[in-house]
């Protein structure tokens, strides 16, 4: 579903649509509050949830990867448990990059599996049990902040710094799964992702509601060996906010001749890719996409499309390490 434009309105002027829908938003918030209050499975190892208050993409996957790498560097064996959005396997199943496809396990688990073991399970508690049995000494729960099936020892809330919490209203009147205050009450760390301008905007609009440790981070592209300056590019992306990917390419100096914003997790069918290939050839442009999209590419197109990888840059890990220390992980 494409987010309604009024979801992006300022919180002090949410729009008449949000006000009209406020009874439904209140019902949605009450339903979420009742659901998250149910007790869940208590794992024998620390469980760190990487979630969000907003519906849609906020940067949970790069945050999960960054945390997995951080823990691995300190000698731990983190496993990720994911619902496997977009995949058909019920699980629990350990993701195997050589065997599984995005159609089976979802694109995000395939991407994360390049960094640390990943389990896909529609039943998250069953996935956590399997990860424990396989030797995990810490579990990263990818998404699931509003899912009560597993008890969390640490909850990391991820937010896009530029968008913040939208108009501050709960679905359907706004983009939130629950009120900001309710999410903060169950969270421990807030990671806002964006450049300096975006972080300043977030501070101006939302700092007063942040009642947990606040960490600023930015997604930065990795070197690809390709000189982007002046490179003619046709970029496509099926992520939460494709325009951010296009802006990154522009910032690297690429000449974007054509962009195609796909739906989040949209299958990259052969007919779609053939159309994009024909258009790119006509423009004399190189096809470029994101890492998350690349795992969904048909095999015949994997050598034809350049992937631009990005990693989450967290300048100050001290607040996060403080919480990890509380769990005995530092």
Verbal overview:
The protein is of the alpha/beta class and 330 residues long. The protein folds into 2 domains: 36-220 and 313-326, P-loop containing nucleotide triphosphate hydrolases (Rossmann fold, 3-Layer(aba) Sandwich); 232-308. The chain contains 12 helices and 13 strands. It has helices at residues 16-20, 22-36, 60-73, 102-105, 107-112, 124-133, 180-186, 196-206, 242-251, 270-283, 291-294, 318-326, and strands spanning 47-51, 78-82, 93-94, 118-120, 138-142, 154-160, 189-193, 213-221, 232-237, 255-261, 286-290, 305-308, 310-314. The strands form 2 sheets. A 9-stranded mixed sheet has the order 3-4-2-5-1-6-7-8-13, with helices on both faces. Strand 9 (232-237), helix 9 (242-251) and strand 10 (255-261) form a beta-alpha-beta unit. The longest helix has 15 residues, at 22-36. It is globular and about 55 Å long. The mean pLDDT is 93.
Layout of secondary structure:
Layout: H1 16-20, H2 22-36, E1 47-51, H3 60-73, E2 78-82, E3 93-94, H4 102-105, H5 107-112, E4 118-120, H6 124-133, E5 138-142, E6 154-160, H7 180-186, E7 189-193, H8 196-206, E8 213-221, E9 232-237, H9 242-251, E10 255-261, H10 270-283, E11 286-290, H11 291-294, E12 305-308, E13 310-314, H12 318-326
Parallel strand pairs: 1-5, 1-6, 2-4, 2-5, 6-7, 7-8, 9-10, 9-11, 11-12
Antiparallel strand pairs: 3-4, 8-13
